[in-house]
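**User:** My hope is that you can spare some time for a protein that puzzles me. I have put the entry right below:
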Amino acid sequence: MGRVTSRRRVVRIVDGVDSEPVDTLAAEEPLEIRVNGRSLVVTMRTPGDDFDLAAGFLVSEGVVRRADEIAGIRYCAGATADGVNTYNVVDVVLAAGVAPPDPSLERNFYTTSSCGLCGKASLDAVRTVAAWSVRDDPLRLEPDVVSSLPDTLRTAQRVFDRTGGLHAAGLFSSEGRLHCLREDVGRHNAVDKVVGWALRDGRLPLRDTVLMVSGRASFELVQKAVMAGIPALAAVSAPSSLAADLAADSGLTLIGFLRGRSMNVYAGAHRVSREVRAEAG
């Protein structure tokens, strides 16, 4: 589609001297996701991997859990009044027998920031809807492997190199091998794109894997990991309190402040191998 980036002339001032170079920006456009022709949600995203984004969003919302529950995904032709296809509207056609989202839940799913749910209600919602449990996943992680994930993720961020303005989510094996990376202006969209790729490739649930994100670990990202059957989430920044609560409640390993060889494990520390040193004195 050629809209992942945009070019814009800027005024650059260095030591009081200005110039007018052309800068590369990450594109941001709305995407309307429809299900069986009915509008479900609009999200701001970086164009690209839109079918993965739509599929991953439906996994996160508990609508689908297998690739064969989606009959097809397509861009809607004539998305504007004059018949122009903007590639900003996708329609997901569910397979026969798959229940569509309840119309009363449009824009008010428990995973969205506008849902009005918090605390125990949100935790109970995820526990009730999740198709797979991550609590007993046998994943084990070596600290050296975990420490390598941010650099591997950063090296693979091709669009970030040009714009400096995108979040990234990467799915890794327990040995640190990168399975899939997606970039987006929205951290939640980047994760949905990874989950959607996994769904369409028949990989769910994502046992024995680690999801690495470039920013902070919010409740929403922990929820998306749990819904996809991912047993561990690592972030370079801090988690929120509710994210840590959900991780502990779900049995997910949550790692934050992953920088160099240092990390904080907020939940599920039993999966991270470590030496136990006796306190001096």
